[in-house]
UniProtKB/TrEMBL annotation:
<keyword id="KW-0496">Mitochondrion</keyword>
<feature type="transmembrane region" description="Helical">
    <location>
        <begin position="186"/>
        <end position="210"/>
    </location>
</feature>
<keyword id="KW-0406">Ion transport</keyword>
<dbReference type="GO" id="GO:0005743">
    <property type="term" value="C:mitochondrial inner membrane"/>
</dbReference>
<keyword id="KW-0812">Transmembrane</keyword>
<keyword id="KW-0066">ATP synthesis</keyword>
<dbReference type="InterPro" id="IPR023011">
    <property type="entry name" value="ATP_synth_F0_asu_AS"/>
</dbReference>
<dbReference type="GO" id="GO:0046933">
    <property type="term" value="F:proton-transporting ATP synthase activity, rotational mechanism"/>
</dbReference>
<keyword id="KW-1133">Transmembrane helix</keyword>
<dbReference type="Pfam" id="PF00119">
    <property type="entry name" value="ATP-synt_A"/>
</dbReference>
<feature type="transmembrane region" description="Helical">
    <location>
        <begin position="98"/>
        <end position="118"/>
    </location>
</feature>
<feature type="transmembrane region" description="Helical">
    <location>
        <begin position="12"/>
        <end position="37"/>
    </location>
</feature>
<comment type="subunit">
    <text>F-type ATPases have 2 components, CF(1) - the catalytic core - and CF(0) - the membrane proton channel. CF(1) has five subunits: alpha(3), beta(3), gamma(1), delta(1), epsilon(1). CF(0) has three main subunits: a, b and c.</text>
</comment>
<comment type="similarity">
    <text>Belongs to the ATPase A chain family.</text>
</comment>
<keyword id="KW-0375">Hydrogen ion transport</keyword>
<dbReference type="InterPro" id="IPR045083">
    <property type="entry name" value="ATP_synth_F0_asu_bact/mt"/>
</dbReference>
<keyword id="KW-0138">CF(0)</keyword>
Amino acid sequence: MMTNLFISFDPTTMFLFLNWMSTFIGLFFLPLMYWLIPSRWIFFWHMIINNLHKEFNILLNKKFNKGSTLIFISLFTMIMFNNFLGLFPYIFTSSSHMIMNLSLALPLWISFMLFGWINNMNHMFTHMVPQGTPPILMPFMVCIETISNVIRPMTLAIRLTANMIAGHLLLTLLGNTGPMLNNLVLILIFIQLLLLILEMAVAIIQSYVFSILSTLYSSEVSYVK
């Protein structure tokens, strides 16, 4: 039994930060393109990429979306593999740390803001005041929109971190109560299996939410006259 529930989120191993290397384990699961006859895994992966490309392509501006979907597809792939592989024993979940998620969200948000304010300054100003706002409420709306825009990278990172930590802590708590429930072990295993299936779905959903929100933030600044 673990003395500390949060010890599974410790990135250190023998005084070294080697646990962060698990971030790149997902690269080994990408299908190789060396075969003359594609495998089912390659067909399945291409189907996922094509569906994501169509989904992101609808949200992005047609003038600026040449190759832009690759950024968000790569982001989705990286987060999904980290979330999913973190459910396996002895694999460190790097996406459960704020420093990891914020390092993904903050550079994207800064690049979007720089692009928007440099190329579409008038559009960025008009975006702060929704259409039909009474003049007396315009100063308040500017403050609210500014705050909501500034906290976007934090909300992206906190949402992903909180969902990953909550699921892992719940699985850990149920696992630690196993030795104390001698007669209910089968029920506990069944509950853990259901929770594990739920966490697999959450791992995919949260990676999709992170990438789709990043795409929406990108589409807001790529305004075409």
